[in-house]
Amino acid sequence: MPLTLLKYGLPGDHVPTRDIPPTPDLKRSYDVAIIGGGGHGLAAAHYLSKYHGIRNVAVLEKGYLAGGNTARNTTTIRSNYITNQSIRFYKEAVSLYESMSHELNFNVMFSQRGQLTLAHSDSTLRSFHLRAEMGRHNGTRISVVDQQQVRELCPHLNMDMGGQHEVVGGLWHEDGGTARHDAVAWGYAAQASGRGVEIHQRTEVQGFDIAGDRVAAIRTNRGTIRVGQVIQAAGGLNEQVARMAGIELPIRCFPLQAMVTQPLKPFLNTLVSSANLHTYLVQSSRGEIVIGGGSDPYQLAATRSTLDLKEQLAHGAVQLFPFLHNVKLLRQWAGITDMTPDYTPIMGASPLKNYWLDCGWGTWGFKATPVAGKYMAETVARERVADILQPFSLKRFETISLINEMGATAASH
Ligand SMILES: Cc1cc2nc3c(=O)[nH]c(=O)nc-3n(C[C@H](O)[C@H](O)[C@H](O)COP(=O)(O)OP(=O)(O)OC[C@H]3O[C@@H](n4cnc5c(N)ncnc54)[C@H](O)[C@@H]3O)c2cc1C
């Protein structure tokens, strides 16, 4: 064994710093309890403690920090949605990513390399013109590009001229990018816990004590706590957690899978997606090709992956980049996504006065981590739903004010 390892490793004066302290005992009460220690719950904790001075906060996480969908997503960040409400919301998300490393004093490796959505038919191209108009109207960087421009943006792409999947153009979204998912979660966790927020891992919410129209206490596997206010950000288990509080959500769970190849030399400098092929690809900073697609077509609350989906994604990836045909796959995984009927999240008030919802994030919620955290914190601090969140209320399903983003979500997330 090297002597320097003994010399510096054994004495106690070179103790590594910890980004978050070990899980403490639960206190008897908290001003705010956040259910779910994923990106959304942790971001809300950060904003509550930094911008609203609310620090008597417990984040209750049944597993380990950010081990839910935050750990499983493919990190597409973009604002090229269809409706005004969504574009405005996700545009702010992108701008918060642009300054996130500075905000968190933590390198989240935000890489704004643009997203290219491929059109394989003239009708798709026509719908892209609408999206580009909507995006530009709301101030995002987005345009329809022709075949030649697609070639320039993505020189290694198989254009399949004259073939079944000929690329006839695309939707180019310069604001699109990616970030390290674990860095985002750990950055928020480190900031929040540095200001006194308690992060309780292995702490499962198992029930609620309701008094009138309020949650009085939360029952966990480690004891019961009294709470002033509650934020629910439980990812794939949002429907179940809400039901424990007596709230029925229009959410159903579907598995979403992804996979990653061995590292390759850099060849892909944009995010590329094809709704026709139900496939999108991005090259990670390590050179791996991350490949994802649409949700599994059946409800299931499980994180197993399937050969069927792997074959489908491999088909799409090789169609777009034929030289990937002999590349090795390293991993395949799945998350449980909490899907809403209009492919849009549910944020804000619930039937219980002190219980706030941050759910229905389905296959698209990583990009929203900072903006949801920011405005959920504002909502709780002021006990009034922030203006930007108003369109995303649970009530929209009663008033038939749905925000249909199915076309913008498909296989792009
Ligand atoms: C394969 C895949 C690819 C994706 N790709 C993208 C993408 O490219 N771009 C994008 O924007 N989004 C993407 N998403 C979606 C994105 O991952 C999620 O929308 C986002 O991570 C949701 O964050 P969250 O913090 O709300 O949930 P999570 O990260 O799931 O955190 C919720 C936490 O709540 C905890 N919890 C649940 N029940 C309880 C309980 N009873 N008590 C205590 N804790 C509980 C869970 O353990 C979990 O850690 C993808 C998802 C998957 C699965």
Automatic annotation (TrEMBL):
Keywords: Oxidoreductase. Residues 32-76 form the Rhodanese domain. Coiled coil: none annotated. Pfam families: DAO (PF01266). InterPro entries: FAD-dep_OxRdtase, FAD/NAD-bd_sf, Rhodanese-like_dom. The keyword Repeat does not apply. One of its GO terms (cellular component) is cytoplasm. It comes from the Bacteria. GO terms for molecular function: oxidoreductase activity. PANTHER family: FAD-DEPENDENT OXIDOREDUCTASE DOMAIN-CONTAINING PROTEIN 1 (PTHR13847:SF287), SARCOSINE DEHYDROGENASE-RELATED (PTHR13847). This is Sarcosine oxidase subunit beta. The lineage of its organism: Bacteria, Pseudomonadati, Pseudomonadota, Alphaproteobacteria, Hyphomicrobiales.
